[in-house]
Amino acid sequence: MRITRIDGVSENVDTTSNAFAAVPYSGRVEDLPADVAHCALSGGLRVAVIDGVLARQERRVARFDRHVALALMVQGTGHYQMEGASLPCVYRPGSCYLSCAWESARGDDVFPAYNQRKIVLLQYQADCLSLFERGGYPEPSGGEFHCHPNRAAWVVRMPMPRVLCQLADELLAHGIPEAPLARLKVESRALAALVTMAESLTKGSLADAVSGDALQPTAQDEGSALTGRERRRLCMARSYIQAHCLETISVLGVAKAVGIGESALQTGFRALFGSTVYDYVLERRLAEAERLLRESMLSIGDVAWRSGFSHASHLARHFRRRYGMSPGDYRRR
């Protein structure tokens, strides 16, 4: 099974709360909403990829059983509030979050509207709890512990090691690979990360886990400086691109269509979505070309034309950079 990216604005919310859109969630990866791509690998490891922008502020009410999970937050803001805890665990880009629970508990995930979320979730077998201390650890150097006040459950936040940042980037961009050896490598990297964290927590320091090569959180997420109105306009721009990316399109044309200045569009789009307008158009066109190569017998030239490229050679150049092979080789594999 191949995980694909989640693009567009997520509308999977309801209005059971005046302050938030409240969404119940069991805490299991397989019970995530349908708009979140996920799959199971061998050894009980489950992977989920969240890549999108919420149209409204959301409070995800999580009720979970025994588990070990690791969240890799490449981009996003919000917080996690354990039931009964006085202080929330704040979400920061460039951080990872290890969650362990030995008994049923509850907590709320809160995400603001119009903020890009790029998150990879790794859920391990509950047997992996034997790697960790039920009662938690002293406050580790480089990390921040949040313990449930009434249950055997805790979360620790730490800077994301470069190796995990690379793993998250690969999964967000390409999904779980189909080749058996490549899938096995994903599993081994995820398990190795868990073992390293267990050893580091036992030693009382996360220095070994981050190895001095962590991607530190930024002082201020660039997207957080945008107003709600600007975020709405930028989300409209992204939707406009999705609808018109196979046509002749320009930054100025997109800006005029959504009522925003060209410079503001370029700067804001990159801050909110982590991509330039040009790169996003290119990404959408390549995704359409890949679909046509899989699902049709059109010539490479026709695939290029239908996916918005001016010439087959133009498609081939960008396709090779994105997928590591020519369009013809991709179809024949």
In CATH, the topology of the largest domain is named Jelly Rolls
- Which stretches are poorly predicted, pLDDT < 50 over at least 5 residues? 1-27, 211-223
Helix-residue proportion: 25-40%
Number of domains: 2
Strand content: 15-25%
State the shape.
globular
Question: Could you outline the blueprint of secondary structure elements for this entry?
Answer:
Blueprint: E1 9-10, E2 21-25, E3 37-40, E4 46-54, E5 58-64, E6 67-75, E7 78-82, E8 89-91, E9 95-101, E10 105-111, E11 116-124, E12 144-147, E13 153-161, H1 162-174, H2 180-203, H3 207-210, E14 214-215, H4 228-244, H5 251-258, H6 262-273, H7 277-295, H8 300-306, H9 312-323, H10 327-332
Parallel strand pairs: 1-4, 2-5
Antiparallel strand pairs: 3-4, 4-11, 5-10, 6-9, 6-11, 7-8, 7-10, 9-13, 12-13, 13-14
Task: Please describe what this structure looks like.
The protein has 333 residues and is α+β, with helices and mostly antiparallel strands. The protein has helices spanning 162-174, 180-203, 207-210, 228-244, 251-258, 262-273, 277-295, 300-306, 312-323, 327-332, and strands spanning 9-10, 21-25, 37-40, 46-54, 58-64, 67-75, 78-82, 89-91, 95-101, 105-111, 116-124, 144-147, 153-161, 214-215. It folds into 2 domains: 9-215, Jelly Rolls, CATH 2.60.120.10; 225-332, Orthogonal Bundle (Arc Repressor Mutant, subunit A). Strands 1, 3, 4, 6, 9, 11, 12, 13 and 14 form a 9-stranded mixed sheet that branches. Strands 2-5-10-7-8 form a 5-stranded mixed sheet, with no helix packed on it. A hairpin with a 6-residue loop joins strand 7 and strand 8. It is globular. Mean pLDDT is 77; it is low at 1-27 and 211-223.
